[in-house]
Design goal:
GO terms for molecular function: heme binding; iron ion binding; monooxygenase activity; oxidoreductase activity, acting on paired donors, with incorporation or reduction of molecular oxygen. This is Cytochrome P450. It comes from Microbispora oryzae. In the N-terminal section; belongs to the cytochrome P450 family. Belongs to the cytochrome P450 family. Keywords: FAD, Flavoprotein, FMN, Heme, Iron, Membrane, Metal-binding, Monooxygenase, NADP, Oxidoreductase, Transmembrane, Transmembrane helix, Transport. With 487 residues, the protein is an alpha+beta fold. Helix content is 49%, strand content 10%. The strands form 4 sheets. It has a 5-stranded mixed sheet with strand order 1-2-8-5-3. It has a 3-stranded antiparallel sheet with strand order 4-12-9. It has a two-stranded antiparallel ribbon with strand order 6-7. Strand 10 and strand 11 form a beta hairpin. The longest helix has 32 residues. The two termini are 42 Å apart.
Length: 487
């Protein structure tokens, strides 16, 4: 494989970050490395500009974040998705799933053609009821803990995984009935963290890592096997689509190994995107009372005060200001903070940086989303009005890429956005939210950006809370997913 220097012939033109020292060996290697490497890259981008090179023991890369350069990198005629760096390391878990498949692997196109119709905006109607039932369980859990500090990231992770499992595969992790996270969650987070560690650390924990991967695969294989044994030939959820739908034009279907890879991909990518998105949105709402008041006014107007009535699909679509809040949270802290692009042929980036075919660059999305040439001098400020219709139309599309770009952008973005809008609307309808006034935002990087240590208290709203807890608890008790056997 060619080195970065060989693929970027005039690499010395690109500003270089200060050298990173070699990792220590032996016992001193434990915990080596910055706890927040992507935020370290963000700081380097502020210091070195819209493009720079970074070198650490064992690898070297070019990092771009300026909007003008990204406008070229997202041009599908010149650049394609690059699977490398931490993403390639995660292939042990998801192999040729949609997110980690190499461009030349045939299963990517096969799976994309089969699954794309199941992820359209209109397809969200079929998942809406399962999503709503899951939010009801979260509401019941918050009512039981009214006034207590709530672990926001933990609860949003449970909500995200339950929504994907139930709506996508007819499976429940039973998250809101457990005192500890489901073992799948622990294994998933451990494998994500493993993929970002230095080689010495990876070697030291190899056996545990393999056990985690094996556990995840066995659980997913069991879910698929149960569906097959049931004789269900329907396509009402993602698993049904994958088992029973053929690729248009060829008649080809996904094999069982690739179906496992896709399910694991959806669980991993979906948990990170949705949980991070909702957690940051709740953080910003509690820190901006004016925004919270405006969002609540919309929720009360659109959803009303009947807490026994679930929001409809159409009502959820009308929560436009709530959606702006979510879009702005995604701008400042996109949970998936990078995507990578490689040159299809020899080219020149920005008119001055020659790249040979196969040369790649990492796009640092949170810095792109703060480019003052696009977003203004107040780009660091949280302001949902940036996503009003006129503002969106006046802004170039390449300036906002929280879900990646091109045909290989996150296929589940409609799922994550609908789920988050529904959940945030139902929570605002029922609770007064208050964050710890002493909390300062600390962004963790457990594979995705998350507001680390963020807690809030939720109290049933005095104006609409009467009957809220019994209604939510009754809905949770009647949830059909409780009848499913869990692992």
């Amino acid at each position: 494989m060619a080195s970065t220097a060989e693929l970027w012939p005039e690499l010395d033109q690109i500003p270089k970050a200060p050298p990173t020292p070699a990792p220590p060996s032996g016992e001193d290697a434990a915990g080596y490395g910055p706890p927040a490497p992507l935020q370290g890259f963000m700081q380097l981008a502020r210091e070195l500009g819209p493009i720079f090179q970074f070198e650490a023991p064992g690898f070297q890369m070019v990092i771009a974040s300026g909007a003008d350069l990204v406008a070229e990198l997202v041009d599908e005629s010149r650049f394609a998705k690059h699977v490398g760096f931490g993403m390639a390391a995660y292939r042990e878990v998801t192999a040729d799933g949609l997110f980690t498949a190499f461009n030349e692997e045939p299963n990517w196109q096969l799976a994309h053609d089969i699954l794309a119709p199941a992820f359209t905006l209109e397809a969200m109607r079929s998942y809406h009821a399962a999503m709503t039932a899951t939010v009801r369980e979260l509401i019941a859990a918050w009512n039981k803990r009214a006034g207590e500090p709530l672990n926001v990231v933990g609860d949003m992770t449970n909500l995200a995984l339950e929504s994907i499992g139930r709506a996508g595969f007819g499976y429940t992790f039973d998250s809101f009935q457990r005192s500890e996270p489901h073992p799948f969650i622990a294994s998933m987070i451990a494998t994500l963290q493993h993929s970002t560690k230095m080689p010495d650390e990876q070697a030291a924990e190899r056996e545990q890592h393999e056990n985690n991967v094996r556990f995840m695969h066995e659980l997913v294989d069991d879910v698929v096997r149960r569906r097959q044994d049931s004789g269900d030939t329907g396509t009402s959820d993602l698993l049904g689509v994958m088992l029973n739908t053929a690729q248009p034009g060829t008649g080809n279907k996904l094999d069982l190994t690739n179906i496992r890879n896709q399910i694991t991909t959806f669980l991993v990518a979906g948990f990170g995107t949705s949980a991070g998105l909702m957690s940051f949105a709740l953080y910003y709402l509690t820190k901006h009372p004016d925004v919270l008041a405006k969002a609540r006014e919309e929720v009360d107007r659109v959803l009303g005060g009947d807490l026994d009535a679930d929001p409809t699909y159409e009502q959820t679509a009308k929560l436009r200001y709530v959606r702006k809040v979510l879009d702005e949270a995604l701008r400042l802290w996109p949970p998936a903070a990078v995507f990578m692009r490689e040159a299809r042929e020899d080219t020149v980036l920005g008119g001055r940086y020659p790249m040979k075919k196969g040369a790649w660059a990492l796009v640092l999305t949170p810095v792109l989303h703060r480019d003052q040439a696009i977003w203004g001098e107040d780009a660091e400020r949280f302001d949902p009005e940036r996503f009003g219709p006129d503002a969106v139309r006046s802004r170039p599309a390449h300036a906002y890429k929280p879900f990646g770009t091109g045909p290989r952008a996150c296929i589940g973005r409609q799922f994550a956005q609908h789920e988050a809008t529904l959940a945030l609307g139902m929570l605002l309808q029922r609770f007064d939210l208050e964050a710890d006034p002493g909390y300062e935002l600390t962004v963790g990087e457990p594979g995705f950006f998350m507001p680390a240590g963020f807690t809030l208290t939720a109290r049933p709203r005095t104006s609409t809370a009467e009957g809220a807890a019994p209604a939510a608890e009754a809905a949770a008790a009647q949830c059909p997913y409780h009848a499913l056997q869990t692992t």
